[in-house]
Specification:
This protein is α/β, with parallel strands linked by helices. It has ten helices and 20 strands. The strands form five sheets. Strands 3, 7, 8, 11, 12, 19 and 20 form a seven-stranded mixed sheet that branches. Strand 13, helix 4 and strand 14 form a beta-alpha-beta unit. The longest helix has 19 residues.
Length: about 350
């Protein structure tokens, strides 16, 4: 099989490898679609994200879906030819976080495309059988791959405890922000406000659930939020941009007694925030790290076709030979590029 390796910063090499054999509790999946994530781009450009450093050639890509080709000897409940979405994090199952249900906090997680673990920019991959989730026949592989970023949006909405009728502010209309808007819409939010500095992304936000948008190049975020909420502020604000300025807009936009949720990872570990507002408003301030128990729910929600998350896809590359071009497109044309989809085995 072929696999696309990040050899060093901004250097991708497609190599031949043997097709792996599944262990007794694993399945072999033929990868049909993989989304390019912002974390992949960080590794490609910088060779690291925080403490995760690329020290040897690595296969990137963790937003994946495919077809089961082979079953391990102890695998039950799955079958060859089944279309599946892949949850990319293998956790230990034994720590206090796994045992309490918050397995996304497991310190021993082996997450695809996070050093030193290889990812899914390859033609075949073995996965533990409990990490592949059957999809309906009518669900595309593209939607299956997008369940991973959609899961981040679902988890953000869960952390914000969004309920029907809530007013929701989402700062940053990149892929995760757009997926969060879609998730908030499905949760029944009454008013969703999207914020960004690119009008194209704001237009896409309207397609994926935003009722109102604010272009920070031309409008005051604080003033527009008060206008849209009759001077009250929003029930829940979710920051997905990783921007210090967005953090403070999030805090100022939340109503008294509201909730603020931080999803975006900044390039800096520390950012100044208005602590007085957090205290005076008695806000709940919460972080988001990946997700847990989202895949079955996501598959069910997306099967109902209430929203088309494939609208986020802006570019497609039909083989692993296009992986480098995919990265460069995402970097060089940020204004017009949202989600890039790669097909390791062709379309």
């Amino acid at each position: 099989m072929q696999s696309a390796f990040l050899e060093k910063i901004r250097t991708i090499e497609v190599k031949e490898q043997s097709i792996p054999s599944p262990a007794s509790d694993e399945v072999l999946v033929k990868i049909r679609a993989v989304g390019l994530c912002g974390s992949d781009i960080h590794y490609y450009e910088d060779g690291k994200i925080g403490d995760f450093i690329v020290e040897k050639p690595i296969i990137l890509g963790h937003e994946a879906a495919g077809e089961i080709i082979e079953l391990g000897s102890n695998v039950e409940g799955l079958k060859k030819g089944q279309r599946v979405a892949i949850e990319p994090g293998k956790t230990c199952g034994a720590c206090v976080h796994c045992q309490s249900g918050r397995y996304n906090l497991c310190k021993k997680v082996e997450f695809l495309a996070t050093p030193p673990y290889d990812g899914a920019f390859c033609q075949y991959i073995t996965m533990r059988s409990d990490l592949v989730f059957p999809m309906p026949d009518e669900m595309s592989y593209e939607t299956g791959a997008l369940i991973e970023p959609f899961s981040v949006g679902l988890h953000a909405c869960s952390r914000g405890e969004i309920t029907a009728g809530d007013t929701v502010l989402i700062l940053g209309m990149g892929p995760i922000g757009l997926m969060t808007a879609a998730a908030a819409k499905i949760h029944g939010a009454g008013l969703i406000i999207g914020v960004d500095l690119e009008q194209g992304r704001l237009d896409k936000a309207k397609e994926l659930g935003a009722d109102r948008v604010i272009n920070i190049k031309a409008e005051s975020v604080e003033e527009k939020i008060l206008e849209f909420t009759n001077g009250v502020g929003v029930d829940v604000a979710i920051e997905t941009a990783g921007s210090p300025a967005a953090l403070n807009s999030m805090i100022s936009g939340v109503r008294r007694g509201g909730k603020a949720v931080i999803v975006g990872m900044s390039s800096k570990d520390e950012a100044a925030m208005n602590i007085a507002q957090i205290i005076n408003k008695e806000m709940d301030l919460r972080g988001v790290f990946r997700y847990h128990h989202t895949y079955p729910k996501a598959i069910q929600l997306l099967s109902e076709r209430k929203i088309d998350i494939e609208k986020i896809i802006t570019d497609r590359f039909d083989s692993l030979q296009g992986v480098k071009a995919a990265f460069e497109k995402a970097i060089q044309d940020k204004k017009n590029t949202l989600k890039v989809m790669i097909y390791p085995n062709g379309r």
